[in-house]
Structure formats: structure tokens, C-alpha cells
Amino acid sequence: MDQLSIHTSRITPGTPMDANKVLKDFHRDYPHIIFIRLQWQDYSGVMRALVLPIEETYIILAEETQPFHVPPLLSNCSVTNQYLPDASARHVQWLVPDWSSIRLASDPKSAMVMCGVVGTTISKPVPNGDLCPRRALVDIVRQARELWGLRFLVGFEVEFQVMKVSSVTGEYVKHSQGPGNFSVSGLRDPCYRYVQQCVQQLLALGVHIHGIHSEGKRGQYEIALKPLPPLQAVDQLHLVHDYLKDTFAQHGYMATMAPKPVISDPHTIGQHMHLSLESVNGDHETSFLAGILKRLPMICAFSLPHTLSYERRLPFLAGETVCWGTEARIAPIRKIEASHWEIRCIDATANMYLTLAAILGAGLLGLEGQEPLLWPDLGDFTIESKTWEEPLPRTLQESVAWLARKADDFGTIFGLPLIQRYIELKQYEISQVGGMNPVKLRELFIELF
Asked: pLDDT digits over 280-294, tens only?
């Protein structure tokens, strides 16, 4: 079989008539809508938005030739809102709304639509989505279906805690304090009523929620989302984040999914992903898992994408070594049942479109190469235990270096332009956050994530 390749055909929206119909139908059902929030997630994991009055949105759609222009933020802007030094001012980007993703925002006057991003330069005037994370995920899912007869279901565990501003120091401190680990006492914490309020709103929108429970040792909650196809699962995840943050903001608090909000607090926050594989052409489980494990250090550059992410590099959190096991929560990949895994080395600062595309693409590379599963099942107690010599990256610098060394391998998943730009931006971010005040850095992450 030919080497796995990405088709970087231009991304185009549906016809203006189709977009207009979707928007008009939605507006008819929700006539109180005044604003349309066009959202996209950049390489740093930051969610960005262009907000338009709905009447202006209709005008732009009707004109056909006038796209939704935005600055080149997708791959040129760091988590600190600094542009790459050599970012081209002549690079033009615009948004490609996926109108099937339109949903009510938590602001009752707004609707939100997830977008892809296309770009042009003077030397390449034809619009293309080479750098678009959403395009990357769509292409990987399509190739899995067409080349291997594979379909996926993806579900996320949304962990979070609630912060408030200290009246004494002016810094963020933890507000939710209830006992965790499924404790009923944690549900008596005053914050929990706002969790319920948010979940009720999400259920009314048709969000698929499996359950809610208190998490961690103290002061955390988790909302488990039911599985959906990959793109819809990530879109739904962002909708849940938006509602959580807005619900608590309305009451003067901050819901955060930042990996370690408080330096002195041992609590960390992850965003575990459940991935199920369905094959119509035979059993592909073993080589698919092998492909992911072989490339797990590179995947960490996407799934643990910031310096603070590596404070979760511990057993029972993100894991320490490249390994897997049936019901082995100590490992970064926990097998639940046949062709169903929980990927644990992920946090909410990740661009989840890129992260999921990297995981699925690595699995497909494993299938293409018929790669053997060299790692034993750590959940099998009949297997003699041993010390694993391949650690997960200890820092973002290490994971980015892994990705740079294997750029050609991952380039077959994303295309080299995306990989090279992602590495460049991460290296710039490392230099930017290295000199920041640790408290200010965590405050920034609490606000963004």
C-alpha cells in the first residue's frame, strides 16, 4: 500500500445558499439571536472568536466573494499573545464556518459556530488549509474510513475546579473545596449547584453527558461526555468548556481546566480521552495501538503542549513511561475493553483537533507498517514486571525535540508545513514563558483554559 498521505485540497464552505438556509433555520428557531460567534482554536490551544451581528453575517454570506477575514493568529500567535518575530504581515487568513456545528452559546443572545482556517500568501494565492487543525482531523478520519474501513468514537472527561480572586492578595485561589473521589460530600459544596445549572443547560441543547462526580482529593469535578464521531466530539467538548466558564463567570467565579492552577496545591487537572475503534475489514487493534505507543513521545508535543503540562507527568496522571495496560491507570494508555482505550497523557491546553489527529494518524501509520505490539499488557499480573526504559518526555522541550527528529514521519499525517510551523511556534513559546513570573503564568492559564 502507498505511504499514508494527506490531501491538502482547499477547504471550501458549503454553497452560500446552504449556509444561508442553515442560518435562517436556526434563526427561525431562536429568533432572539443577535450575534454569531465564529470560533477557531489556535496552535497554542487558545480559543479565539470573531463576533458578528447576525444581519452582517447574512450580508457576507450573500456576497459570496467576501470571506470572514481574521489576522494570521492560527499558527503565528503564542499563548502570551505575542506574534512570532518573523510572522509575515502579508499572510492572509479567513474562517470557513462549519454551519453544521452551530449551537446556542451560553450568552442567550449569541450562537457559536466552529471554523476551519484557510490562508494565502503572495507566492501561493490559491486558498488552502495546509495549516488548519480541523482540516487535519477531517482528513485523517476520511483516510481511516476509505483506506482501512475504520470508524471511531471519542468521548472526553472534563475535569475542572473553581477559582476566585482573593480579597487579600488579588490572586486566584481555589474556591471549590468539597471532598473528591466520588464523595457525596463534594456534591454539597456550594459550587455544585452551578455545575448542575450548567449541565441542565447542556442537556437541553442535546449534549451527550454520561455522568458527573467529584474528582481528585478535594475541590474538583468531572463531567464525562458520551462518545461521538471525532470532529463532533471535539466540537462538543469546546461547547461544554464554554458553558462551564460562562456559568461560573456569571456568579463571579472562574472555572478552569488549567493543568495545575495553584503552585502549592498538589491537584492537577487532565482531560482524558476515550477512543473506540470499529473495523469493518478485520481486527486492526494490535497494530493500531502499536502505532500510537511507538509515537507517544511525539504525540506529547500536541497532547501536553505547554511547560505546565509536564507537572502532570506522574503515575495515575499522565504517566511516566511509554506503556499500556488493561485497567492500568498508572499507564498513559489504559485499555478498557477490546479496541477501547483511555488516553491519559492529555490536558485541556491542547488543540484537541491536532491532538486527536496525531493519535489517530499514529495508529494508521502502525497499520500501514503492520507494526508489532512490543509492549506487554501491564494489567496482566501473570506477566513478570520489569522496569521500562523508555520514559515519556519530561519537558515540553523534550517532546518538541522528539517531534522535530521525527518530522518526516508525522509529516505524512499532517503535511510538513503544519509540523514545521507547530514546532517553530512551540519553540518560541518556550522562550516566552521561561522568563515569566510563575504566579502570573498560572493566572494566565486559569483565564485561558
From this structure: 676 899 999 999 999
